[in-house]
Design goal:
By secondary structure, this protein is an alpha/beta fold. Helices cover 43% and strands 17% of the residues. Helix 5 packs across helix 6.
C-alpha cells in the first residue's frame, strides 16, 4: 500500500467518519511497524487491547494478512457494533476474534491465541496498574521478534501509561 495514499485516505476519510484518536504521527509509526511485519511468513497473531470505535484497529487490520486479529475491550454491545462496522468499512474484518473482557482480571492460563502474537497494541486502561498488568500478561504470549506498541506513552494526561511501561521494562532488565 502506497504510504502517501494511505496517509491521505486516513486523514481525509477515516478521520472524518470514525470517532476516536489516531493522529498522523501514530499513523506514520504504525504504518512503518506494520509494513515490517505484514508478511505472513513472519507468523503470529495480531492483538489490540482497547478498541473503542476501531480507529487504530482499522489501520492494524489492513496489515495483518491472514493472521487472526484479537480485540480486547470492555465496551457494551452497541460500541462493539460500531467498531465492527468501522473495521468492515475501512479495514479487514476477516478473522476478528472479540474478547469483551477486562484484561486486568485475566489469568495467564485464560489468555490463549492460535499462534503467538507478532503485533500487540496496548491502548486500554491508562492507569499504571492496568498498563503493567497488560504488559506482564500479554508479553508472555509474544512471538520471537514480535512488536509491542504502548499507546499514549508520552501523553502527559496519562502518566500511568509511562509509569507502567517503565516499571515493566525495568523489571525485565
Amino acid at each position: 500500500m502506497n504510504f502517501e495514499r494511505y496517509l491521505s485516505h486516513y486523514k481525509n476519510v477515516i478521520d472524518k467518519e470514525v470517532e476516536g484518536w489516531f493522529y498522523p504521527k501514530d499513523i506514520i509509526i504504525t504504518y512503518g511497524l506494520l509494513t515490517e511485519i505484514q508478511s505472513d511468513t513472519f507468523g503470529g497473531s495480531v492483538c489490540e487491547i482497547g478498541v473503542a470505535y476501531g480507529k487504530s484497529a482499522i489501520a492494524i487490520s489492513q496489515f495483518r494478512g491472514r493472521s487472526k486479529f484479537y480485540l480486547y475491550d470492555i465496551f457494551d454491545d452497541s460500541a462493539k457494533q460500531i467498531a465492527e462496522k468501522n473495521i468492515a468499512k475501512f479495514g479487514n474484518a476477516n478473522d476478528l476474534i472479540w474478547r469483551l473482557q477486562d484484561t486486568t482480571q485475566l489469568k495467564p492460563e485464560t489468555v490463549e491465541f492460535e499462534t503467538p502474537i507478532r503485533f500487540l497494541h496496548i491502548d486500554g486502561c491508562h492507569e499504571h496498574p492496568a498498563v503493567l498488568s497488560d504488559l506482564i500478561l500479554f508479553s508472555n504470549k509474544m512471538a520471537d521478534g514480535g512488536i509491542i506498541v504502548v499507546d499514549d506513552y508520552n501523553d502527559y494526561e496519562y502518566p500511568g501509561v509511562n509509569a507502567g511501561t517503565v516499571e515493566f521494562m525495568l523489571s525485565k532488565a
